[in-house]
Design the sequence.
């Protein structure tokens, strides 16, 4: 067994490293949080060797995707690597600005992506962790204005002001918030949570429910499953994938059932 340890030195570096590693290794393991995992799976999927297995050693405060897996222990990961135990899981592909990007866990447009943008600014000042996430929510709370959004596809009809649209493969993001209770990585469908004309105060009041894995009971909150859909926005709205700002404006999202071999 040939083992190589590669360290990233900049944002986006893990994409190239994992794409290169996929050429000569059977397993690529990401050490980090959801953002690192996102870059690694994009590198694997960009390579010509998509049969490479993917594993995770969580090393961040968020690690939303790992909460979707049954066993998060490093020992279990090592045992499964030795035993060659892998399972096929779904990925999602999002198209935007004439580009595309895979995501493993959660993508959203609207308020959540604006929070991520605020966190990115805070990171440049050396601030990270749960405190940074809470501060980013607070800052966004006072500045964000809901945008008009239109969803088309899979029989889902929505048009109006929306606080946030969340596309889920795993269902947990933002330091333990269960945004879609029925999202699963192996059902061949993505989840969609629509937070429509919900006030920011109502969203904040319901954060405790999301932390407990409960649905938000509100007429402007809807839950769906889908294969493919598109979103149009009246103004520029940020899109984030697994905690990384990706793009904006007209967006198409689709599920890719069982395309990733995951050591879990």
Sequence:
């Amino acid at each position: 067994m040939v083992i190589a340890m590669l360290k990233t030195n900049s944002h986006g570096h893990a994409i190239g490293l994992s794409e290169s590693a996929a050429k000569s290794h059977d397993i690529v393991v990401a050490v980090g949080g959801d953002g690192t995992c996102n870059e690694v799976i994009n590198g694997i999927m960009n390579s010509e060797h998509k049969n490479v297995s993917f594993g995770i050693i969580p090393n961040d405060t968020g690690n939303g995707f790992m909460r979707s897996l049954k066993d998060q222990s490093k020992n279990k990961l090592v045992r499964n690597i030795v035993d060659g135990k892998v399972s096929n899981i779904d990925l999602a592909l999002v198209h935007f600005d004439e580009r595309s990007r895979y995501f493993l866990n959660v993508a959203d447009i609207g308020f959540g992506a604006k929070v991520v943008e605020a966190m990115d600014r805070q990171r440049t000042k050396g601030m990270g962790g749960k405190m940074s996430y809470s501060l980013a929510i607070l800052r966004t709370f006072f500045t964000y204005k809901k945008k008009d959004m239109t969803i088309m596809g899979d029989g889902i009809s929505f048009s109006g002001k929306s606080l946030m649209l969340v596309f889920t493969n795993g269902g947990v993001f933002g330091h333990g918030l269960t945004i879609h209770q029925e999202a699963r990585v192996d059902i061949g469908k993505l989840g969609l949570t629509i937070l429509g004309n919900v006030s920011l105060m109502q969203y904040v009041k319901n954060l405790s429910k999301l932390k407990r894995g409960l649905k938000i009971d509100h007429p402007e909150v809807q839950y769906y499953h889908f294969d493919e859909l598109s979103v149009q926005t009246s103004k520029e709205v940020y899109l984030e994938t697994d905690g990384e700002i990706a793009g904006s404006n007209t967006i198409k999202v689709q599920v890719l059932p069982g395309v990733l071999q995951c050591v879990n």
